[in-house]
Amino acid sequence: MLMKQLKSNKNLNNYETRFHNMVFIALFCLLGSNVSVLKSQDPIYSQFYNAHLQLNPALAGNTISPLIQLNYRNQWPALPNIYTTYSVSYDQFIRKLNSGLGFMVLTDNAGEGTLRSTGISGYYSYRIKFRGNTYIKGGMEVGYNNLSLDWSKLQFGDAIDPINGPISPGGTPYPSSESVPNTNSRNYLTVGAGVVIYNPQYYFGISLKNLNTPDISFVGNTATGQSANSNLPTRISLHGGTQIILKRGNNKVDPTFLSPNIMFLRQAGYNQLNVGAYLSIDKIQGGLWYRHSLFNGDALITSFGVKKDFFKISYSFDITMSQLTIRQGGSHEIGIILNFDHLYPKRQDYNDCFAIFR
């Protein structure tokens, strides 16, 4: 999303100035009469391995049984409810079709409901054996989304007095010359695709989200009567990793493995690079990643989780390293996985390197 791009603004000198400028600039770009282009980004979890459908539709169907994932993210909690994201997903592999099927429902809330995005997406993948134990999976995603705007929560620069702020001494808000848009809700379709190649040693994938670049504008061009040019940009993702088995498991003990991973995202000039590793020792999991924007270091991501039978829960914390600093509260995530493989009479031997996603 747009406000996230302002994290690296070097002209903001203190906490209140950073916050207010972030809000005003973002809203100006969203609704200002002199701006015709809106840039927005799709949400992405730090625990991308616990939300793999959001990363690449080709990853749909990594388990024979149903796999359910629940995710929650709270970014910068020191600024109340500025960014919260929720999602729930289901996917599994269907042997008879040699295909993976899945769906996800996701809600992204910015500014205490000022800008809210809700969508449901369906996923399909197909697996082809390439050579030996190496496979290629291709996948696609189709989503239906709603973007809503609560105009009553917006603040504009011309309605803020330099001395008194947005409220006059008499207790009434200062008026703004901004025109209320004709609609505060937009429905749109998104289309995505991806490919992943994998074997027991490594995986590498590429995905493209929002291939159709849907129009998500609220404000039209008053001079022409046409919609502003504010399409949701295509997001490209490159990701890969390896899996190193440190100790074999059995029916009672899960294997011990180390999974180094790398993920790169680019959307509308916004870059994100995550590099790190995930360690699983029987029922205990943990990870450490470094996130970079290619221009400056953004955050150090730590995670810890436990697993019992079909249930796994993980918590992660983003330690902010940019000029926003830890005073913003960092970012908190909770990921829950329900993997029902244990209901099958025989332990599954997947012969791949996707244990991190299960």
Query: Can you summarize the main beta sheet?
Result: 14 strands, antiparallel, barrel
CATH fold name: Porin
Structural class: mainly beta
Number of helices: 2
CATH class: Mainly Beta
Cα end-to-end separation = 28 Å
What is the helix content? under 10%
| Quaternary structure of the protein | single chain
CATH architectural category: Beta Barrel
Count up the domains: 1
Shape: globular
Question: What number is the mean pLDDT?
Answer: 82
What does this structure look like?
By secondary structure, the protein is mostly beta strands. The protein is 6% helix and 47% strand. The chain contains two helices and 17 strands. It has helices at residues 15-31, 52-55; strands at residues 67-75, 83-94, 99-110, 115-131, 134-149, 185-198, 202-209, 220-221, 226-227, 235-242, 244-247, 256-267, 270-281, 284-292, 297-308, 311-320, 331-339. The strands form two sheets. The protein has a 14-stranded antiparallel barrel with strand order 1-2-3-4-5-6-7-10-12-13-14-15-16-17. A two-stranded antiparallel sheet has the order 8-9. Residues 1-39 and 221-228 have low confidence and may be disordered.
Provide a quick synopsis of the model:
This protein has helices at 15-31, 52-55, and strands at 67-75, 83-94, 99-110, 115-131, 134-149, 185-198, 202-209, 220-221, 226-227, 235-242, 244-247, 256-267, 270-281, 284-292, 297-308, 311-320, 331-339. With 358 residues, the protein is mostly beta strands. Strand 2 (83-94) and strand 3 (99-110) form a beta hairpin.
